[in-house]
Amino acid sequence: MTSLPENSDKLNGAMPPLQEDEKSNTESPREPQPVLDGTDKRSPTAMANRRRMKDPYRHILPHRMSFHTTGVLATFLRPSSGLRRGATVSPSVDPASRGGTPKRGRRKSSNLAQPRKLGKDVQNEPRPIVPISAREHISFKTGKRHSHGPDLGKNYRKKNSTDYNDVNRYNAEGYAALHTAAQSNHLGWMGELLKNNADVDLPAVSTGFTPLHLAARYGWLEAAMLLLKNGASCDASTHLGQRPIHLAARRGHADIIRVLLEYDKDQVKAFDKDLMTPLHMAAISGDIDVCQLLINNGVDIGAREVSNMTAVMMACAVGHQSFIHCVLQSAPSQGLKACDLLLHTDNEMKTVLHIAISNGCKELVKFLLDSGADVNAQCGMGHTPLHLIAVVGNTDIANLLLDFGATIEKGDNELMTPLHRAAMYNRLAMVGLLLDKGADINAREKDHFTPLLCACWRGHVEIVKLLIQRGADLNLRDCERKTCLHWSVEMGHSEIVSVLFEATGLGLLESEDRMDQTVLHYTAETANVALLNLLLVKGAKVDTRDNEEKTPLHIACQFGHLACVKILLQHSPNLLNTDDMDGMTPLLLASHNGHPSIVRFLLDTGADIASKNDEWKTALALAASKNHVHTVTVLIENNADINALDKEKNTPLHLVCQAGHQLVAKLLLAARAELTHCNRAGLYALDYAIENQHLEIAKAIVTSKDWESALSNRNDKGLSPMKKLIKKMPDAALLVLDHCSKKSHSDPNHPDLEITCDFSYLDPGPDDHLTGENNIIDKKKRFFALKTMLKYNRQKLLCHELPQCILSRKWSKFAGIFFMLDFFFYLIFLGCLTHYTSSSQLITSEMQLNSMGCVEVDANDTAYIFNEEGIVIRIADPWLWVSQSLISIYCLFLLVMKFLHLLQLRVAFFLAISNYVAILLCASSLIFTYPPFYPPCSLAWNAGAIANFLAGIHFLLYLQPIRYFGIYVGMFLTTSSSLLKAMVVYVFFFLSFGLCFYICFSRLDAFRSPGDALLTTFVMTLGEINKSDIFDAGISLSPFEHAGHILFILFLFMMPMVLMNLTIGIAVGDIEAIFKSAYLKQQQILVDLIWGYETKLPKFLQRRIYESKVTMRPNKANKRTWTKAKRFLFGGAFVTKDDQSKNSEPSTEEIVTELHRNRMMISMLDEVLKRHTDTLRKIADKFDISNELEELSIFRESVSSLHSNT
């Protein structure tokens, strides 16, 4: 067993610090005190604690364990000790031979675990040794085992050495064993740990303390010397940049500082992250020995920390007069003057005298003044020491400052004297002292406040009395021309008001401030009823006006003080309808600021509800513009003019629609506010709701009783509100469509069902025109709502039964007839083209062609007619040249129509693919039939092939408007468009594989040229793949055989398989989107077709076929064959059964049920509000609150009224 160090007999009984404030190094051993935590060895808790504390080493055993087991430490740390778990070792030293308790620190450490008191028997009992596991650890505080290892934390140090990990491992608090040993001055432990490679400069995780820091902090001289002898660095810094000398100076350990300076004299110049030197730390503790030691070793006594404070300033902050005296005496030794140290200022420009005054230590202040401190020095805020002591109220120090010559009239940055500050902070004795010393009682600061004004503002009655008694001028005013009475009334200091009246009588009662307001105006604004009655009793004038011509009654109504309004009107009823400079009466002010209780009271008193301000706005307009719902309700109940116009000809509804107040708008509409008023800007209420995107207001307008008049309004440009609704508010437009389609029965299957459709808002008729520039009517412009729906993609509106009905009616009345005629002529053209193609003589390989590419005709050929000279005149078959003639005539006519169409549409003409198809069809057909009456040549046959292809495409386009076929044509075109977009990606694959196959298979005929290779690749992509034609053709592919196989396999995967799945995905996976897109496209073509037919008709025909209203009977069966054929050819009613059921109105039973449910909910709401009102009334009676309660009562009455109406 390893022996203990020589000095272990003196130190192995040392205990960790229990009370760090104890400073003695030679205290006698204290008897262990019993504790009430169950640590007695006979208790079960103590036995359990002993079982947990199995290891004598610091990592395992808490540092409260008695030190007699230290002798086994070396055996434990030695790898060959061979001790097994649970073995015990007898102590090597008798506990009775332990010396006195070591020196303890001054303050309790917050970073290390504090020891717990143990009983005497527990301290002396041997502990079993448990080797430290590589992944377990026991807390210093609790003795509990913790899991360590890789998850110990990124701040824990890790090294490869096994001994290092054992000795330098951190515990749960982030400290190693050497830290705890150094803190507790266990020299034996420290020696053994250092012998076993303990890191002498190992920093703690949370604080950065090294063992030397802890020894210096707690004043363990022997521990510090041991660490220094083993190479501990004096320059090691904590996380705050503090070195061991900082901690020693902070705790006043002069012996530690002396040892540190012996090792490194430059430590006296050390500074931490806040630039604090050891002398700054010593100033906090105030230790004279440390101070003298540091000064003797050359510390800079004028050094400043981060806030520019010197050590003398810090000593003043904590009141260490002897420390300051020591530093000032040593100043000449460093070439400084004591007065210079006293005149230094910090970041706030405070001197040592400012700092010392905050402590209230008279002796320190006197010492500084005797030493030469400036008694009138000003800090950053301009405060002198006398200002600061005036705020504190210490008259002793104030007398001392005045005795040393403090200027009593010195002003700070706000020009406040010490008397101002004393009066503001209610320092009565200080005010008396300053007045006795000759302070100016009427001194003014930068806002012209006198001490009396300050006291009246803050409500200090005794100060006011003292100042008045000492002769303060009560007529002085501040920069706002407010007197002391103004401030007292404004702040509600009734007692001071009484004092002022006693002192001055009624002299200040009618005084006016800069706004020409008297104290009565102030009382009306603050709602102090007691002061108001007092002022009226004193004779204050009620009809005085300020610079805005407002009386106190105006002020009370503006701020909503009902009690003040009642008192003022009771005192002077003739002020009821007086107005201010803006024409605002008390009623208008109360309405504008939303005080319904005052509005109701004024109306009951006789206020003029029709009064207007200078902008001609009534009370209702003002309340509505500010969204005061309750106030509007009160005014409407009192028959306010709901359509009154202001100067801009705005009604209250205009103002509400501009601001977007939904509830007020609904109240006005329920009161039948007119919707046909146009203001000076040429806008209606609905226009403002649409332009400002107030959807709920727009819905309320279009669902009101006067919705027809709202939609009949046109602005100055002739735009219909319906167009704006479709563009910006489709949901509101949908409500309009519902209004325009009325059903006679709620049951959609009723045999007598009649549907009345009003088309006037979708199609105003042929006489409807828009206004262009310079207010010139443009007869070519006409509103058609369905085109607007298509322009802004309003599918939901377009699918409504009303637009479908108008399409059906126009189609069946004229558009279908025109279309079928056009289609009939196209069928004739198509038949002629087909006949001409099939009957004309084809060019074969046996025929001889002339230089023009035409067939050499034999004179004996009966298929042609020759003249006398043997020249072909025409084709012998009359049907051929008739077909040829009809094809030419139709194409020329179609080209003329397209040209006229181009002139009409201009740029929009080129956006339609059908126009390109039609032009190319005509051009190719004309080439095909040229020259006339002659058989087609080679060029003509090529054009004929193109013409026949385009004729088929054009035929498909003709089918688009037809209801039964058009949707599928649209789906085909949409799918083709999507597929072409996808094929853009595949073009690069075609090129890549085509060129690769050309290189590998160029010996085969199908791949002999790049063009053939690309064409063959395209055919193979479509599925025409024959492996034997490539690899089994008997032609050697070497040296490209292997590469060809690989490319062929890649081609099979990437081209046919992927392309097929892509095509299926486009056609099937997005079928719903394709269907919707095709439907919208069909509707667009149908609308454009119908609109094009109608606008090309003369005006008298347009008027003849126009229908503003239609009544339909969809459930009446019509068995006539012609009607069925007509519906098939020209289209029937577009309102299907599904549409009827979807858009049908609820039944009467459903309406009754819903009304009953709403009535129950309103009844419950009324009951809840009644209970709340009763509760709040009791509270209001207690606290004298009336205004808010009246508003709640009005709201409850409104709800009750609504309930009764329902």
Give an overview in words.
- The chain is mainly alpha-helical and about 1200 residues long.
- Among the domains are: about 840-960, no CATH class; about 970-1080; about 1150-1205.
- Helices cover about 55% and strands about 0% of the residues.
- It has 57 helices and 9 strands.
- The protein has a 3-stranded antiparallel sheet.
- A hairpin with a 5-residue loop joins strand 5 and strand 6.
- Helix 36 (about 660-670) packs parallel to helix 38 (about 695-700).
- The chain starts with 7 loop residues before the first helix and ends with a helix.
- The model is unreliable at about 1-165, about 770-775 and about 1130-1145 (pLDDT under 50).
- It holds the Pfam family Ank.
- One of its GO terms (cellular component) is transmembrane transporter complex.
- This is Transient receptor potential cation channel subfamily A member 1-like isoform X1.
- Keywords: ANK repeat, Ion channel, Ion transport, Membrane, Repeat, Sensory transduction, Transmembrane, Transmembrane helix, Transport.
- InterPro entries: Ankyrin_rpt, Ankyrin_rpt-contain_sf, TRP_cation_channel.
N-to-C span? 102 Å
Using the alpha-carbon principal axes, give the shape: flat
**How big a fraction of the residues is strand?**
under 5%
The total of beta strands comes to 9
The largest sheet, given as strand count, sense and whether it forms a barrel, is: 3 strands, antiparallel
Overall pLDDT:
78
What is the count of DSSP helices, taking H or I runs of 4+ residues?
57
Order of strands, main sheet, comes to 3-4-9
The structural class is mainly alpha
Detail the poorly predicted runs.
Answer: 1-164, 771-777, 1132-1145
Provide the helix percentage.
40-55%
Structural Rg: 53 Å
Organism: Acanthaster planci
Biased composition (Basic and acidic residues): 20-30
Keywords: ANK repeat, Ion channel, Ion transport, Membrane, Repeat, Sensory transduction, Transmembrane, Transmembrane helix, Transport
GO molecular function: transmembrane transporter activity
